C-alpha cells in the first residue's frame, strides 16, 4: 500500500506506544515521518527502526521548541502534509487529588500543545480546496464519555478541549484544503499497561465493557486506522471523532 507516497507526517509523542504505532503505519503506506519526542535517545531509537524517518527532540510544553521543530521538519523534508498530535501528560485522579500543577501540565501538553502545533503547521498544510487535502489528527479519549467520571474529570476536561479545537480547525481551515479529525483509541500503550497493572480490579471491569474484549494494537489497529484516515479514501471526512476503542464508548 502506497497511498501516502510523497507525503510527510509529523507525529508527536512518537518515541513509543500509540505515537510510534501511528508513525510506523504511516511510513508503511509510503509517508516520510518526523518522529517528535522529548527524550532524545528514545525518539532516535524509534526513528532508526523506520526507513527514511527522522527524529526531533521537542518538549511540547515549550512554545519556542514547537516553532523550531516545525521549521526543522519542513527544512529537512521540504513539505508537510500530516500532523498527528499524540503527546499528552495525563492528569489522573479525583478532583481533590489532582493539584494545579498536574492539571496545568495536562493542558499544556495536550490541547495547548496541539493548538500551537496546528497554528505553526497551518502555513505548510494550507494548499487550497482544489488540491489533495492535508490532515490534522488529534488524540482525544473515550474518557470524555465515561459513565462514571469519578477520577477522570481532569483528564476528560483536557481531552474534550482537544475535540473542540479539532472541530474549529475543520470549520475554519476546510477552505484551505485541511481536514481535521480526532481519534479516541484504546491501545496497548505503556501508560495503559501501567494503569492495568496498578488497578487490576478496575481493569477487569473495564475490559468487560469493551465489546471486542481487547485493547487495540498500537500499529495494526490504531496506526493503520490513522493511515487510512489520512489517505484519499477518506478525503470527504473532517470534523469527526473516530472511536478506535473496540466499541466501548457511545460517540453517536
From TrEMBL:
| The name this protein goes by in its record | SDR family oxidoreductase
Checking InterPro entries in the record gives: NAD(P)-bd_dom_sf (IPR036291), SDR_fam (IPR002347)
Query: Which parts of the chain span the membrane according to its record?
Result: none
> SUPFAM superfamilies, per this entry?
NAD(P)-binding Rossmann-fold domains (SSF51735)
Q: Which family, according to the similarity comment?
A: Belongs to the short-chain dehydrogenases/reductases (SDR) family.
The UniProt keywords, alphabetically, are:
Oxidoreductase
Which PANTHER family does this one have?
OXIDOREDUCTASE, SHORT-CHAIN DEHYDROGENASE/REDUCTASE FAMILY (AFU_ORTHOLOGUE AFUA_5G02870), SHORT-CHAIN DEHYDROGENASE_REDUCTASE FAMILY PROTEIN
What Pfam families does UniProt report for this protein, alphabetically?
adh_short_C2 (PF13561)
Amino acid at each position: 500500500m502506497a497511498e501516502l507516497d510523497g507525503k510527510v507526517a509529523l507525529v508527536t509523542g512518537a518515541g513509543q506506544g500509540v505515537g510510534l504505532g501511528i508513525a510506523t503505519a504511516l511510513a508503511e503506506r509510503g509517508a516520510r515521518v518526523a518522529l517528535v519526542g522529548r527524550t532524545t535517545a528514545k525518539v532516535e531509537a524509534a526513528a532508526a527502526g523506520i526507513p527514511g524517518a527522522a527524529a526531533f527532540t521537542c518538549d511540547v510544553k515549550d512554545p519556542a521548541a514547537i516553532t523550531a521543530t516545525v521549521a526543522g521538519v519542513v527544512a529537512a523534508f521540504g513539505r508537510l502534509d500530516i500532523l498527528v498530535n499524540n503527546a499528552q501528560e495525563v492528569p489522573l485522579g479525583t478532583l481533590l487529588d489532582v493539584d494545579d500543577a498536574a492539571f496545568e501540565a495536562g493542558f499544556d501538553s495536550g490541547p495547548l500543545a496541539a493548538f500551537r502545533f496546528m497554528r505553526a503547521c497551518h502555513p505548510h498544510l494550507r494548499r487550497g480546496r482544489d488540491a489533495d487535502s492535508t490532515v490534522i489528527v488529534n488524540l482525544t479519549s473515550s474518557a470524555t464519555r465515561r459513565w462514571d467520571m469519578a477520577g477522570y474529570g481532569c483528564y476528560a476536561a483536557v481531552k474534550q478541549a482537544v475535540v473542540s479545537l479539532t472541530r474549529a480547525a475543520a470549520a475554519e481551515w476546510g477552505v484551505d484544503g485541511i481536514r481535521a479529525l480526532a481519534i479516541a483509541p484504546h491501545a496497548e500503550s505503556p501508560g495503559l499497561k501501567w494503569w492495568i497493572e496498578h488497578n487490576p480490579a478496575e481493569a477487569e471491569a473495564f475490559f468487560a465493557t469493551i465489546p471486542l474484549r481487547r485493547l487495540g494494537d498500537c500499529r495494526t489497529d490504531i496506526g493503520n486506522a490513522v493511515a487510512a484516515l489520512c489517505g484519499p479514501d477518506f478525503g470527504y471526512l473532517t470534523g469527526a471523532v473516530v472511536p478506535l476503542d473496540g466499541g466501548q464508548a457511545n460517540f453517536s
